[in-house]
């Protein structure tokens, strides 16, 4: 069987967290919008049709929600890095990319976004 690389997309996960370093940002939760793409080797799941052989995106999403909603972050870079770490924990993951938007961060912009990616070495 040829190697099969699956891509999971988590799109527009809308959460609220404490993010920023200005005094007003430290007092009030703000919206963030999370997009993640996760590539993993899907051969075991394809061959067996067994749930335990697949990457469980619901588990990943729940971990992201818990971490973001319960956390406090000064920098968008730290938040994105933490979410990327959650997305790349499983050993079958070859690549992951996370982009988080902070809506209304700039007066005349819809949002400010930051992306980071992980490549398996």
Automatic annotation (TrEMBL):
GO terms for biological process: folic acid-containing compound metabolic process. CDD domains: DHNA_DHNTPE. Its EC number is 5.1.99.7. Residues 8-118 form the Dihydroneopterin aldolase/epimerase domain. Keywords: Isomerase. The keyword Transmembrane does not apply. InterPro entries: Dihydroneopterin_aldolase, FolB_dom, GTP-CH-I_C/QueF. SUPFAM superfamilies: Tetrahydrobiopterin biosynthesis enzymes-like. One of its GO terms (molecular function) is dihydroneopterin aldolase activity. GO terms for cellular component: cytosol. It catalyses: 7,8-dihydroneopterin 3'-triphosphate = 7,8-dihydromonapterin 3'-triphosphate. Belongs to the DHNA family. NCBIfam families: folB_dom, PRK11245.1. This is Dihydroneopterin triphosphate 2'-epimerase. It comes from Pseudoteredinibacter isoporae.
């Amino acid at each position: 069987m040829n190697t099969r690389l699956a891509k999971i997309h988590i799109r527009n996960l809308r959460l609220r967290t404490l993010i920023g370093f200005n005094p007003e940002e430290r007092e009030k939760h703000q919206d963030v919008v999370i997009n993640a793409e996760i590539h993993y080797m899907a051969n075991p799941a394809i061959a067996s049709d067994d749930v335990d052989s697949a990457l469980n995106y619901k588990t990943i999403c729940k971990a992201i929600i818990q971490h973001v909603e319960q956390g406090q972050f000064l920098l968008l870079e730290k938040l994105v890095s933490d979410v990327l770490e959650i997305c790349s924990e499983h050993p079958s993951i070859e690549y992951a990319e996370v982009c988080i938007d902070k809506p209304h961060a700039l007066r005349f912009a819809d949002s400010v976004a930051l992306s980071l990616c992980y490549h398996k070495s």
